[in-house]
Write a structure and sequence with these properties.
With 279 residues, the chain is an alpha/beta fold. It contains 11 helices and 12 strands. It has helices at 13-33, 73-83, 86-106, 120-124, 128-139, 152-157, 159-172, 190-193, 203-206, 213-229, 241-249; strands at residues 2-4, 8-10, 39-48, 54-65, 69-71, 114-117, 146-151, 175-181, 198-201, 232-235, 254-255, 264-265. The strands form 2 sheets. Strands 3-4-6-7-8-9-10-11 form an 8-stranded mixed beta barrel. It has a two-stranded antiparallel ribbon with strand order 1-2. Strand 3 (39-48) and strand 4 form a beta hairpin. The longest helix has 21 residues, at 13-33. The radius of gyration is 20 Å and the shape is globular. The chain binds ligand C2E and calcium ion (CA) (3 copies).
């Protein structure tokens, strides 16, 4: 990119071509990633702040490319969404997550719930609900153990569809979380319009609750709002002890973040021993 005029950065044609080529390359590589066994699911524990036990885990997709190394989800998920690959990939993540839950169970460990991210493209897939119900039946996971995370923009992009899909999922017994709560442009009205179970306070707010009065006020308000509406609230991106202390003081129900646990491979998580250090 070249500096042009006053503080304006202009991307040259060459930069643009390079970006487009890189995305095209990644998209093509992604087509084979599933078949080539390059995808894995990591699990990040979500901690109950009352008991400091594991309330659940969030399934997070990982792509290990043979030449490029690990490609970050923020880079490849948007491509998977654009190409429609997120539909088979998302289904695979869900099946993997259900299998992991069973594997823990067989090892004598209990994970109360598994949360799986759902993208807007999956939402528009008319077979979504029957596929999910099929995977639950196939693996024998009770629907109440599954939570699906959707963003505000997914809800806002087609509210009628969202209401219908969430309604069906809810009737089956699956719970619904709003991811990155407070960062979208949707109105608070949807909190009563949609059947929801969990609000996840985005880590952009949580990051500065110790230093920034506004971020602290927003986080406290979301916690109160969730409680009054009978929803659970998960604080995301907890990295510091001071943040954890405040969140417990504000009676936030659950938290997730590097301080508590990083995303790990299923076999490396010991669900019973996790937080001995914090007790
Ligand atoms: P997300 O759903 O908001 O997931 C939480 C992200 O925050 C994860 O990034 C996690 O590793 C990161 N994180 C957790 N604790 C901390 C912390 O204390 N500090 C910081 N700085 N980060 C923390 P990750 O795994 O890179 O995923 C990024 C995004 O990619 C996710 O954001 C989600 O939107 C998307 N994603 C990941 N897996 C899937 C998937 O299977 N399906 C779909 N549709 N999207 C996915
Ligand atoms: Ca999420
Ligand atoms: Ca999030
Ligand atoms: Ca995010």
């Amino acid at each position: 990119a070249k500096q042009k005029g006053r503080n304006r950065i202009q991307f040259t044609q060459a930069d643009m071509n390079e970006r487009v080529e890189e995305e095209l390359f990644l998209s093509q590589e992604l087509v084979n990633a599933l078949a080539m066994n390059q995808l894995r699911v990591a699990y990040q524990p979500i901690i109950c702040l009352g008991t400091l036990g594991v309330a659940g885990v969030e399934a997070l997709l990982r792509w290990q490319h043979p030449d490029l190394g690990e490609v970050a989800p923020d880079r490849f998920i948007p491509l998977a969404e654009d190409t429609g690959l997120i539909i088979p990939i998302g289904e695979w993540v869900l099946r993997e997550a259900c299998r992991q839950l069973l594997a823990w169970e067989e090892a004598g460990q209990c994970c109360p719930r598994v949360s799986v991210n759902l993208s807007v493209a999956q939402f528009r897939d008319s077979n979504l609900v029957s596929r999910i119900v099929g995977i639950l039946a196939e693996t024998g996971i009770p629907p109440g153990r599954l939570c699906l995370e959707v963003t505000e923009s997914t809800l806002a992009s087609d509210p009628e569809l969202a209401q219908e899909v969430l309604g069906s999922l809810r009737r089956v017994g699956i719970s619904i979380a709003v991811d990155d709560f407070g960062t979208g442009y949707s109105s608070l009205a949807y909190l009563r319009q949609f059947p929801l179970d969990v609000l996840k306070v985005d880590r952009r707010f949580v990051a500065r609750i110790e230093e920034d009065g506004d971020d602290a006020a927003i986080t406290r308000a979301v916690i109160t709002l969730a409680r009054e509406l009978g929803l659970k609230v998960v604080a995301e991106g907890v990295e510091k002890n001071g943040q954890l202390r405040l969140l417990r003081q504000w009676a936030c129900s659950e938290a997730q973040g590097f301080l508590l646990a990083r995303p790990l491979w299923g076999k490396d998580i010991d669900l019973s021993r996790l937080l001995s250090g914090l007790r």
